[in-house]
Amino acid sequence: MAVMLLAAAGGAALLRLGDGRKSDAMTFYGNVDIRETMPAFEVSGRITRIAVQEGARVRRGELLATLDDTSYAAALAQAEAAMANRKATLARMLAGSRPEEIAQAKATMDALKAQADNDGRVYRRLESLSRKSAASLQDRDNAQAAFLAARDQYQASRQAYLLAVKGPRAEDIAAARAAWREAAAAVALARRNLDETKLHAPANGVIEDRILEPGDMASPATPVFTIALPSPLWVRAYVPEAELGRLRPGMTASVSTDSFPGTRYRGWIGYISPTAEFTPRTIESPELRTALVYRIRVYVCDPRGQLRLGMPATVRIDKAAPATGATGCLPDHDGGR
């Protein structure tokens, strides 16, 4: 009997000793959180096709939807035609005058020079005769006017010949080159607008919502989908101020959920909020609801894609050791322990 009493007393002492020890493990409660993206067309138009449904997994660059591209294709064709015209103009200026054009200008100049020389001789002859009253003053004046007109025509043809020999001015070539670059930029813009009538997935993810449907008018301000991004994935939890001093970024953690009992996901503390806030109503905590808490972000390895947005999760901080990283990690199975 005495032995039994001593054993019972010893067991009670051990129980009290165990209760008095402070465990190194900390447990917090939160919800799974992920990032989302809401892609939209960069141009406006009517949607002709939606290629994916809700719940579909998409990869970056995958075609999601298309717009009616009739007007954008026509704008591209117009811009390409304008660019071809500007390019031809620039090429003509760079090539300069053709030999035939120079020869034609010289022939015109020579012909007008011969005409001016002849009109000059006629004028001088009539002027001499008019002094002797052998020719009328009217004939002299007519000859003078013809001579002056022929001389001016010759001077103009001479300048035209010199321009043909020299070719276009450097300033004109520079202006033509700038006009060609402007047309090329317009083609690039039109081609980009045409390409933007196809909406591609910006990243790997899962389609959560189809916001628009075929026949709807799309614009850059109106998203077409909501896409959940599978990485990074974390648990948003809240820590009482009394426990804050025991946490630091890089500490390892394990995460478990009710949906997959017995499965623990490896993680680590990636963020601790620098400011306090009131406990959100959706968070389970043994502390008072009016207590101030600090938000933490525990990044989680989920290679099997089991965790979902908003899923309640339990975070257990086991030891103060840096995480080894998220690549190649698999959830641990502990048989429900």
TrEMBL record:
Entry GO CC: periplasmic space
InterPro entries hit by this protein: Beta-barrel_RND_2, HH_YbhG-like, UPF0194_transport
Residues covered by the CusB-like beta-barrel domain: 232-319
Main location class: periplasm
Lineage: superkingdom: Bacteria
Protein's UniProt keywords contain Coiled coil: yes
Parts forming coiled coils: none
Location in the cell: Periplasm
Any Pfam family: Beta-barrel_RND_2
Keywords, alphabetical: Coiled coil, Periplasm, Signal
Signal peptide: none
Residues of the YbhG-like alpha-helical hairpin domain: 67-196
UniProt record similarity statement: Belongs to the UPF0194 family.
Protein's UniProt name: HlyD family secretion protein
Species name: Acidiphilium multivorum (strain DSM 11245 / JCM 8867 / NBRC 100883 / AIU 301)
